Amino acid sequence: MQLSKELKEAIDNNAFCAISTHLNNDEIQTHLMWVDYKEDYIVINTEKERKKTENIRSNANISLVIFHQSSMYSSWEIRGVVTEILSDKSADSHIDKLSLRYTGKPYRRELGQEWNYEKIKSRELWKIKPSKINSMLRPHTKALLCSRTELHRSHADELFLAPRHSLHKK
User: Fold this and answer.
1) Which string of DSSP letters, residue by residue, matches 15-35?
2) Of 59-63, 77-81, 126-130, 158-162, where does mean pLDDT reach its minimum?
3) Cα 75–chain centre separation
């Protein structure tokens, strides 16, 4: 299943997602996460040895809701399965990529500082193959995505790559 252009643009513009995993047969656990994609897979980066990592190993089915950053009523519900778990150093590098995109600095340290494995837990990547995508994209959000994409193309990345809190100041 293909990820839409609008979904990829929302993720590129720091959309957050809520992921839900199965705790057991009766309960579901949900977390707010940073999100990424690679080709037509959703990518989640999480710390190893968390409850959600245990959950996904016993039941690979997952549900996500990705919220548009500027229009919270525009979202995508994605149901799928975790098809691959990568727990090598590439997951640690990937969290830096996400952290730079979402916060403007490497994960849990300043620019130029080395990764300190004693203070930062190792990471893993989940590659999620969508089996169903429900888009709840409002018309004004499509226009917003298009205008942001044009700004990105005109080298105005600083505006949208700034830490999220600065975009919400009144």
Assistant:
1) -EEEEEEESSSS-EEEEEEE-
2) 158-162
3) 13
Report the alpha-carbon distance of residue 55 to residue 150 in Å, rounded: 40
Answer yes or no: CATH 2.30.110.10 is held by domain 5-167.
yes
DSSP characters over 91-143 = HHHHHHHHHHHHHSS-TTS-TTPPP-TTTS--EEEEEEEEEEEEEE--HHHHH
Provide the CB-side half-sphere exposure for 125 (13 A, CA): 22
Q: At residue 162, does pLDDT exceed 80? A: no
Residue whose C-alpha is closest to residue 122's, from 100, 97, 89: 89
Quick one: average pLDDT of 46-69? Answer: 94
Mean pLDDT estimate for the chain: 82
For 88-141, write each residue's pLDDT tens digit.
889 988 998 999 999 988 887 766 667 665 566 789 999 999 999 999 977 655
User: How confident is the model at residue 157, as a pLDDT?
Assistant: 40
Taking the CA atoms of 93, 96, 100 and 102 in sequence, report the sign of the dihedral they define. Answer: positive
- Find residue 31's DSSP bridge partners: 19
CA distance 60 to 128: 9
Helices (H) and strands (E) in the chain, counts: 6, 7
